[in-house]
Amino acid sequence: MKWCCVPFEGWSQKAGKRGIAVFVGEAVDGELDFVLQARTVDVGVEMARMNSSDNNALLSLVSEMVIQYCPWCGRHLMRWYKKDLVSLVKPGLRIPL
């Protein structure tokens, strides 16, 4: 596969790990989308109870947004990766609605 840029290649290998990652995920309607995701913990890691006087504090473990253009080089992702789209799918990483 020819990557659009070095940062995109690197961040695509981080999918499911703590930090920022990009991957292709399946939307509710079955369509494939490019996802920019930020995680506070790796997939499968359970969060320890927060040490806080406010036990009702909320913490977002995963945030994500659908993107159409590479955040680093600006290429249109669906056009660039149309032949390799299926190989970029990471099942189970999308936030369920």
Account of the protein in words:
This protein is an alpha+beta fold. It has a domain of 63 residues. It has 2 helices and 3 strands, in the order H-E-E-E-H. The longest helix has 7 residues. The N and C termini lie far apart (31 Å).
Quick recap:
This protein has 97 residues and is an alpha+beta fold.
Task: Give the SSE map.
Elements: H1 6-12, E1 19-26, E2 32-39, E3 62-67, H2 77-81
Antiparallel strand pairs: 1-2, 2-3
List keywords for this structure.
single chain, 97 residues, alpha+beta, 3-stranded antiparallel sheet, 2 helices, globular
Strand order of the largest sheet: 1-2-3
Major sheet summary line: 3 strands, antiparallel
Q: Stretches where pLDDT falls below 50 for ≥5 residues?
A: none
The helix-strand sequence is: HEEEH
| Number of discrete helical segments | 2
Helix content, binned percent? 10-25%
Class derived from helix and strand content: alpha+beta
Per DSSP, what share of the residues sits in E-state strands of 2 or more residues?
15-25%
